[in-house]
Design goal:
The structure is a single chain. With 214 residues, this protein is of the alpha+beta class. The protein folds into two domains: 111 residues, Jelly Rolls, CATH 2.60.120; 39 residues, no CATH class. The protein is 17% helix and 27% strand. It is built from four helices and ten strands; from the N terminus they run H-E-E-E-E-E-E-E-E-E-E-H-H-H. Strands 1-2-9-4-7 form a five-stranded antiparallel β-sheet, with no helix packed on it. It has a five-stranded antiparallel β-sheet with strand order 6-5-8-3-10. Helix 3 crosses helix 4. It is globular and about 55 Å long. The termini are far apart.
C-alpha cells in the first residue's frame, strides 16, 4: 500500500485546526454588525459608518426581574444586543437568581461557557456524554467552565439573591433549554416519542406540555 506523502498530512492538519474554533477569525480590525441586513456564515455585514458608542455596552449592569417560575433572568450581550461583537467570537451574559432560583438544564451548541459568581452561592453542574455529573457550590469571586455543547445548570443555594457573569467563545452561542425544547416545541414532538423516551404515559406528557406551551 502506498503511504501518503508527509506534505499532504501536514496540509490536512492545517486545514483541520481552524475548524476547531467556534467562530471564524475576523479579517479586519472590526466589523460592527448591520442588524438590518441578513446574517452570513460568520455574522452580519459590516456597518458602513461606526462611532465610539458601537464599542461600549451597559446592558450587563441593569437589575433584572426574577419573578418567574424558575426565579432566574438573563441579560445577554451578544451580537444581537451589542453589534460591536460581530465577527469577534465572544459574548457575555448577566444572570440573576432569586433565592432558590434555577437556570434549568440547557446547552450552548456553539460555545464553551466560563462564568464567575458576582454575588451569592450557586450550585453549578454539567453532564458529560457518558452521563457523569461534575458539580460544586461556588461563591462570590469563584469561577466555573462548561465545555462546549454539554448540558449544564445553575441553582441558587444561598439565602439571598445570586448573580453570575458568564462569557462564551461565540458571538451568538445559542441555547437549547431541555424542558422547553422537549415539551414546548412547535410543532410538538409526538407523544409517542416522549412517552417511549421517558417511560411514561400520555397524561403525564400532556401535563408537561401544558406547562411549557408557548
Amino acid at each position: 500500500m502506498t503511504s501518503l506523502p508527509i506534505s499532504f498530512l501536514l496540509t490536512l492538519c492545517l486545514l483541520v485546526i481552524p475548524s476547531l474554533s467556534s467562530d471564524s477569525d475576523p479579517l479586519q480590525d472590526f466589523c460592527v454588525g448591520d442588524l438590518k441586513a441578513p446574517p452570513s456564515l460568520n455574522g452580519f455585514p459590516c456597518k458602513s459608518s461606526v462611532s465610539a458608542s458601537d464599542f461600549f455596552f451597559s446592558g450587563l449592569g441593569i437589575p433584572l426581574n426574577t419573578s418567574n417560575r424558575n426565579g432566574v433572568a438573563v441579560a445577554p450581550a451578544n451580537v444581537l444586543t451589542f453589534p460591536g461583537l460581530n465577527t469577534l467570537g465572544l459574548s457575555m451574559n448577566n444572570v440573576e437568581f432569586a433565592p432558590g432560583g434555577v437556570n434549568p438544564p440547557h446547552s450552548h451548541p456553539r460555545a464553551t461557557e466560563a462564568g464567575v459568581v458576582i454575588e451569592g452561592s450557586v450550585f453549578v453542574g454539567f453532564l458529560t456524554t457518558n452521563n457523569t455529573l461534575f458539580s460544586k457550590v461556588i461563591h462570590a469571586g469563584e469561577m466555573f467552565v462548561v465545555p462546549r455543547g454539554l448540558v449544564h445548570f445553575q441553582w441558587n443555594v444561598g439565602k439571598g439573591k445570586a448573580r453570575l457573569i458568564t462569557s462564551f467563545n461565540s458571538q451568538l452561542p445559542g441555547s437549547a433549554v431541555l424542558p422547553s425544547t422537549l415539551f414546548g416545541s412547535m410543532p410538538e414532538i409526538p407523544n409517542a416519542v416522549l412517552t417511549k423516551t421517558f417511560r411514561t404515559d400520555d397524561a403525564t406528557v400532556n401535563n408537561l406540555k401544558s406547562k411549557f406551551a408557548v
